[in-house]
Amino acid sequence: MTLDQGLAFGLMGATIGFFLWGRFAYDAVALGALLAGVLIGVIPADKAFEGLSDDVVVIVAAALIISQAVAKSGAVETLMRPVTPRLRTVAVQVPVLAGATMLLSMVTKNVGALAIMMPVALQIARRTGTPQAALLMPMATAAMVGGVVTLVGTAPNIIMSRVREELTGTPFRMFDYAPVGLGVCVVTLLYLMVGWRLLPGGRKGASSMEAAFTIGQYTLEARVPTGATAAGMTVVELKALGEGEVQVSALLPRRGEERPVADGGGVAAVVEEAAAGPPDGGHRLAVGEGLMLRGEAAELERLVAGAGLVLAGEGPVVDNPDTDEDDLRVVEGVVTGESPLVGRTPAAMTLRTRHGLSLLAVSRRGREQLRDRIAQMRLRAGDVVLLRGLAATMPDKLGELRILPLAERAMALGRGRRSWIPLAVLAAAMLLVAMGALKVATAFFGAVVALLALKVMTTREAYESVDWPVVVLLAALIPVSGAIQHTGGTDLLAGWLTSAVVGLPGLVSLGVTMLLAMAVTPFLNNAATVLVMGPIAATLAKQLGLSPDPFLMAVALGAASDFLTPIGHQCNTLVMGPAGYRFGDYTRLGLPLSILVLLTGVPLIAYFWPLAPH
């Protein structure tokens, strides 16, 4: 072993040690390792920052942005809507939700797919009384396995494609992983149909800051614009669109419109007043008609966006109608006793023209039904309001109006719109990659630019959707892991591994390689596992006189199959808090599945990627 090899091994050993210690964040450890590598001379200074321009970093960041756009679009919820009312028992809910998550993770980043499906699962669990713990871990597992089917489904596949390109000159293509991945998916889904019973019952999700705000239900005023989905719907059909979670408190006819009086003959001309009582469920909504809606903020957003309604407070900023969406913000605040709004209406206060704020919704304690138009609603101390205005002036305006802002929460109300555009853009990007017209990084970068150009999401939302610690981790670890390869350390490690498996059948050597990747991933992070073990596996195959491709596939599948701990993969971490899982719960479901994936994956890899050299 040379001095440079010893330094490279020492650097990687120290990095892994800090990862295992867990005292510092992964990205901070990776940055420290990069700096140390440059200082001790195993990483050339002119190559230290090549990871920032690596295609892997671009693809991972772009995939997260696209996933967020798909989640905001509500397209998946729309597709799931005909199915969700039929999911009444756990035995049906688990395979359907896990299968849907698995399919979605094949076309977008698996973490993003899980984030898209989790609200659907939580809503079903709340409605049917199903323990969240019975649904979320199977969905996280399905997301991880579904991600191995395509190039962009999981980071190990993306990184392994780059490793293969460096070693052989040809990267793995979009669907090269599919034959093996689909087989593993089938086995996993069959296991999850019964495996969910291994999870303990009675787990309760940890309380979050969101739960601290027991605000209750909001009331808002919405209007049916031309071309809206709600136009022509009955009130009952509109409620069904909101799955019964949103109530229609009153109907607000257009100014001057006459409507039959409910308790007798004749008509009544309506100018500003709302209907005196609950609306007739059979009434069909007309273009221009207004509604008073009441429900939780998230449920209201889903209904308003799904029905294509327009909020009374929406519209361009009065003093600057060309204001970009990036400059606007929706803030939640409490009207204090000293506020000039107390006892007055937004119209009387000229809230929008004078202060540049639009009142979107109001939440009031008690059982009082708010049926006045938003502009004519007299506010009280203690009312919680949703205000929309310029982000730059919002703090000053809240101070002037003595409105106490609540801790910032992601309030989509007044900003969400249902659209199929993100799915169409994603499909176009994947088609171009599959046809070989564009490389993955170029196609996904172009998809992000298209989403921004089409105003599907704002640039601020795009930045917020990127998991920057993961991006920094990848960018820093690429040159760190390269130090072992460039100093000849991978050849040395492969030699030791070769001596351990010499004389064994090639299929056993392949299984050992995959087992090592599965064992290391929970402690090292799957991206780091691929970066370190990929070159070692390829060198091992070369020394055994076998093709490197099946060994690279084995490492990719093993690194993506982290079912044993909540820390090795983001999908596992994402569901730990909401479901109240403990560390050992992951092993109960994950250990049998890890054995199944090993027994299934190795023969499939050897069949579709023959061990004999080309």
TrEMBL record:
Residues 318-404 form the RCK C-terminal domain. PROSITE patterns: RCK_C. This is SLC13 family permease. It is found in: Membrane. Keywords: Membrane, Repeat, Transmembrane, Transmembrane helix, Transport. InterPro entries: Cit_transptr-like_dom, DASS-Related_Transporters, RCK_C, RCK_C_sf. The chain crosses the membrane at residues 7-24, 30-49, 56-76, 96-122, 134-160, 180-199, 421-454, 466-484, 496-517, 523-541, 550-569, 589-609. It is a multi-pass membrane protein. It comes from the Bacteria. It holds the Pfam family CitMHS. Its main location: membrane. The keyword S-adenosyl-L-methionine does not apply. It comes from Paeniroseomonas aquatica.
